[in-house]
Amino acid sequence: MPSEVVGQSAGWLSTASDFAHGLEGYTDDRLADGAGWVTFDVTSIQCPVTVLHRGSDRMVDVIHARHTAGLVPGAELVIFDDLGHFSIVTKVVPAIVSLLQRQC
Questions:
Q1: Does the reported pTM lie above 0.85?
Q2: pLDDT value at position 50?
Q3: Is 54 exposed, middle or buried (0-12, 13-18, 19+ CB in 10 A)?
Q4: Which residues contact 30 (CB under 8 A, 6 or more apart)?
Q5: What residue spans define the domains of the chain?
Q6: What's the start-to-end Cα distance of the chain, in Å?
């Protein structure tokens, strides 16, 4: 069971706690993203989107999942505190099945 289902995202708001782990990880991710999503408008996504993440992931902070869910209109953010960075893969197929049962 997810420890937190945020549901429909109302948007991403940056707070001081978002960068509690420092700017290094955020900066590294932005450099790795390169130009990022510049070839399409993320806000134009109209199909169901679910963002899965582990609440205390030590490899990728949950702030990134919250950010992604905040960018995509109506995205559902599901956080599993009981899974690790790689073990969350067990939740991917059920999430896809759930998405396929929803309509755009």
A1: no
A2: 92
A3: buried
A4: 36
A5: 4-101
A6: 25
d(CA 95, CA 15): 29
Q: Report the percent of the chain where pLDDT is more than 70.
A: 67
Q: Report the C-alpha gap between 61 and 18 in whole angstroms.
A: 9
The secondary structure of residue 103, as a DSSP letter, is -
Closest-CA residue to 72 (of 46, 98, 35, 94):
46
Backbone angles phi, psi at 46, to 5 degrees: -120, -10
What pLDDT does 29 receive?
A: 65
CA 65/CA 87 separation, integer angstroms: 16
